[in-house]
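Holo prediction. Input below; ligand is magnesium ion.
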Amino acid sequence: RACQHQISLAQAVLDTTAALKELVENALDAGATQIDVNIKGPSALNLLQVADNGSGIDARDFENICKPSYTSKLQTLEQLGSVRTLGFRGEALASLCLLGNVQLLTKTAQATTGSCLSFDHSGNVTRIEKVARERGTTVIVTNLFDAFPVRKSSLQKATKRETTRLLDLIQQFALVCPGVRFSLSIDGKRTLKTQGHGSCLDVIAQLFSSRTVSCLVPIDTNPTQDSFARMTGYVSKADKSCARSAADRQYVFFRSRPIEMRKLCSLITKIYQKQVGQHSYPLLFLHLELEDGTFDINVAADKRQLFIHDASTFLEACTQYFCELYKVKDY
Ligand code: ADP
Ligand code: MG
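Structure of the complex:
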């Protein structure tokens, strides 16, 4: 049984990107307005560090914080239906302890000093030291996947792909949380920085360029005409000079989290291509809101997939909206 539990924990965090996603979500759940990510080594295997200025962790939680299934976000099972925090399963920190060496630096507003906690692979606290720090939490993971040589070597080989995915992930969080200041350093080099104020468009300008912003038109629709769905955001103008050569900047967000919606993205792309030409891809920053009870969300290890119950009605309505937007008649 213990072994089985270990397997399921190890599967909760499949790679560095999944680990980083969990840590950033924890920081957001803790109300952070500043999140600094620091990674070192191929695929962040040497260091994965996320520092936030959120609530910090109460000393009463130290002992259990990295234990499997420990979460401060659910008090009763009934709350499971209404969770609005990003995490609630209490698996991320326990998984990370299993996969690497974990240290936490943390301080709450009430605590007089900060604490530095070290953990063993089972999530037990092995050491507590007092340290000076501001309110918030820093999670430091070193030697990630050392005990899993096969996964480690595959991640080592895929450094470039993994780095792109890590950057993309932080970009997505920055886009969906314009009020949070994000920074990302890779091997000591500052790769990304946002200001933490302004709108989604400001973040787009900070992440990409102000020219990118000038290529966009707003999306604002309730495509099915009832309260069932609402889409807001931005998409490329029908202008060849604004097109991208790959679908690499198409983001869909649902309730402030990045999700995957391949069908919708490819639908928009196809309509866009009818107007702009083949091999042209629009930028897409789309926020989706759906009524409770009209969708399911499948939380896979590293991505979220949204299943809309009446998907064909929804996609048809979207087709109409984007055909009008791009003045495409025969789709
Ligand atoms: P979950 O997020 O599902 O509750 P985690 O394993 O990710 O589970 O985290 C366990 C607990 O540790 C959280 O419920 C929260 O109380 C605490 N925690 C983790 N990261 C932070 C953080 N950055 N700031 C404050 N508390 C945190
Ligand atoms: Mg979590």
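Residues 2-193 form a domain with the Heat Shock Protein 90 fold (CATH 3.30.565.10). That is the main takeaway for now.
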